[in-house]
């Protein structure tokens, strides 16, 4: 019988390597072929996928910010006020709503959004801020000509 010596115990990899590799293989479970089965290939592909996932999370945030700004721009255009004036007047009225909430109001709650536009429009008139226009032509196109905007 051979008794294990200290150098032999240090050289053995044991269960740690198994679980470390298993973690990687679980991340690659949906891959095809050798990309799933061969560790040296799997580790490269998993690392690459994780890098893209990290970048994707940042890009998703930027995409959502752009979408919210576009929706808010369209809502403000509809009521004849620039987006900068609208946000500035809301801040001066101590109405602190972020882009997401304002764009959701513009899409799903047009009457609430119209009330916010009226508040900001009144503040802009009182303080003679630029960025007030006439109502957009889009109001007549979509049958919104009867909306009362002062």
UniProtKB/TrEMBL annotation:
Pfam families: Ribosomal_L20
Transmembrane domains' residue ranges: none
Gene3D superfamilies, A to Z: 6.10.160.10, Ribosomal protein L20
Swiss-Prot/TrEMBL keywords: Ribonucleoprotein, Ribosomal protein
Domain of life of the organism encoding this protein: Eukaryota
Example of a GO cellular component annotation carried by this entry: ribosome
GO biological process, one term: translation
InterPro entries to which the protein is assigned, alphabetical: Ribosomal_bL20 (IPR005813), Ribosomal_protein_bL20_C (IPR035566)
A GO molecular-function descriptor: rRNA binding
Keyword Ribosomal protein: yes
Cited SUPFAM superfamilies: Ribosomal protein L20
The family this protein is said to belong to: Belongs to the bacterial ribosomal protein bL20 family.
Protein known as: Large ribosomal subunit protein bL20m
Lineage: Eukaryota, Metazoa, Ecdysozoa, Arthropoda, Hexapoda
């Amino acid at each position: 019988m051979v008794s294990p010596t200290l150098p032999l115990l240090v050289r053995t990899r044991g269960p740690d390597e198994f679980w470390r590799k298993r973690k990687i293989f679980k991340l690659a479970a949906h891959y095809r072929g050798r990309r799933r089965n061969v560790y040296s290939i799997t580790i490269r592909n998993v690392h690459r996928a994780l890098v893209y996932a990290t970048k994707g999370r940042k890009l998703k945030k930027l995409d959502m910010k752009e979408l919210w700004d576009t929706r808010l721009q369209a809502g403000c255009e509809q009521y004849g006020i620039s987006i900068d004036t609208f946000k500035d007047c809301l801040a001066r009225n101590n109405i602190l709503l972020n882009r997401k909430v304002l764009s959701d109001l513009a899409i799903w709650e047009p009457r609430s959004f119209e009330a916010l536009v009226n508040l900001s429009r009144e503040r802009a008139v009182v303080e003679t801020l630029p960025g007030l226009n006439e109502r957009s032509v889009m109001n007549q196109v979509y049958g919104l000509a009867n909306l009362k905007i002062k």
